[in-house]
## 1
Amino acid sequence: MIGRKNIGRASPLLLVLITLGFFFATYNLLTLVLQYTGSSSGDGSELSYDPITRMPNEARKLGKSSPKYHVALTATDAPYSQWQCRIMYYWYKKMKDMPGSDMGKFTRVLHSGKPDNLMNEIPTFVVDPLPEGLDRGYIVLNRPWAFVQWLEKATIEEDYVLMAEPDHIFANPLPNLAHGDNPAGFPFFYIKPTEHEKIIRKFYPEEKGPVTDVDPIGNSPVIIKKALLEDISPTWVNVSLRMKDDPETDKAFGWVLEMYAYAVASALHGVRHILRKDFMLQPPWDLEVGKRFIIHYTYGCDYNMKGELTYGKIGEWRFDKRSYLSGPPPRNLSLPPPGVPESVVRLVKMVNEATANIPGWDSVKNA
Ligand SMILES: *[C@@H]1O[C@H](CO)[C@@H](O)[C@H](O)[C@H]1NC(C)=O
Ligand SMILES: *[C@@H]1O[C@H](CO)[C@@H](O)[C@H](O)[C@H]1NC(C)=O
């Protein structure tokens, strides 16, 4: 019979296909399991492979290990803050639903006390700035106070919060790096609590524990349980104001005072952060994006046409957010010359992609 003959002929091929299929299925499952256990053991968490479903991805979906986090971007209505927020939000939208992302909803926490012209473009919650004069002209002191108000008044679905800043660009889908009550933070090389023991002790008394309890971080980027942030935020406001009021502390910490204030406030609540170097990269110092999650473009990138860094000296080619204090950068910025690190090229390409696709990019100039 023809049918039989065909089956007979097809069977060796079929066998090979079945074997291959079985091999790949096993291989894929193994890879998944390895990735899963790998990522859990890598940062010391207690994640476990579900013995009943035997499906690590199922376990993830149930939200046992990686519940979603809310992206909270603190910002002002200044044009300088606005254009960065628009780029930030553009990349949030692109990354949100990609595999590996645990992003939930997004809120720009606008601490200017009144709505601005981006209310329809970016989900925004308006909070008050500190009462007149209390910020001592140091605008970032408004951040902790913004979190206190937002957490108290807003309805937030997610159990975790990512504290983000306007000059952050999501370069890879960001999972929830926190584990249970351990938030995740980025270790900044210039935040060194142990080198400022005398000052830290003014706010973190000896009976609380060693100075090494104070993590070398700022409040952003941090992914933290919402309930913990609700506890820490009022203390963070208090510690920032007291630090600002103490001339010795103000002088020693300068523009990173509010970062130290968060580090101290969280230590006062007994909260220790998982330090994730891969949370963020900072061009031009970090040369490649790789698997890191957030590009932080706080440093100017200056190069000559040979592709050599001329840091501190205005380069023939440059990208520096501070060149655009009063309005957005134009669309289609020129790409850096050959030889410039991949991280810088990527940054400019990502800025260009966002500005090319955000409707009315050039029209929003003033708040
Ligand atoms: C901070 O907290 C301390 C102790 O609870 C309190 O005495 C102080 O008045 C607070 N300071 C500010 C600026 O809120
Ligand atoms: C962007 O600028 C380059 C020159 O730097 C030009 O060749 C290109 O056509 C421009 N692209 C758009 C979309 O304007």
## 2
Amino acid sequence: MTATPIFNFSAGPAVLPREVLQQAASEMLDWHGSGMSVMEMSHRGPEFISIYKQAVADLRELLNVPPNYKILFQQGGGLGQNAIVPLNLAGRRAQPATIDFVHTGSWSGKSLKEAARYANVNVAASAKDNGFTAVPPQASWKLTQDAAYLHICTNETIDGVEYNFVPEVSADVPIVADMSSHILSRVIDVSRYGVIFAGAQKNIGPAGLTLVIVREDLLEHALPICPSAFHWKTVAEHESMYNTPPTYAIYIAGLVFDWLKRQGGVAAMEQRNIEKARLLYEALDADDFYQNRVAKEYRSRMNVPFYLRDESLNEQFLAGAKARGLLQLKGHKSVGGMRASIYNAMPIEGVQALVDYLNEFAGR
Ligand SMILES: *Cc1c(COP(=O)(O)O)cnc(C)c1O
């Protein structure tokens, strides 16, 4: 064991609650007296079915998921859903359908590029011209009357831009939200969305699991070419076991859901996340030694990109951080600079340690 605590600011795969890792370690060889590791269990056996059912029930409770929504556990990640979503929803309209996108950063950009293989893409608004530093105001969006759906990325992990509103759309155009990097970090009204998806490796659990929450009436519109294993209706009818689901990742996600409940649920996490983000942005804004370029009202509570005014100090900054146990602060290669991801599992002590280091490095 090291004397200095380690704080991991990775954007994903990312920090997990210590208690969850400890519990998983203690159950690794023998889950609840079954004589088996969860990794060794049949996904159709009573042991794993109980793990699966508990995870779904806990997630439903945490996010207050209405009864007319299915919770699916898939594989393929967020990028997989960029194809899986249009394959499942483009059939809502005569072909070729049109899909509306709001381009707020790297991830929504990837999503609209992939969707263009299956449908017409309308970029209703783009923040590209301002360097992805804000969500374009909804009044400026040029939405399509009969779009198959509207796709938004509610937290841009690389650009550090987070929605602070739910778009108003016509009742017949469902909103599809990529919530990969902030799901479970704040209270949401699931009923305002048609589909919510999230790769698990940011705020849920290990890589390899993708969560999809989909309104039941949206299960009926897949294109004929949609692969069976990615057909939401088929997956829903088989309780996410049409093919073998990522069983161990579901188990860890279940432990995280249980941990979240013990923390007081999503509303309590949100309060802590507000406080953590406030502390960190305050240190970055103290003078012009550091810089975060995102408009204040759209700054992400989960992913905080920042630059040193003097970028020649970058390597020194990272080396000093590492020496203090502050890990993985290097920014995404596409934008450079630094990034601190402060997901649910990052304790406030970790943010405080980073703030202390920011102040020290700036010579305050
Ligand atoms: C990480 C991320 C993805 C991509 O997830 P993969 O699992 O790597 O496919 C998609 N969208 C957002 C918002 C992300 O943060």
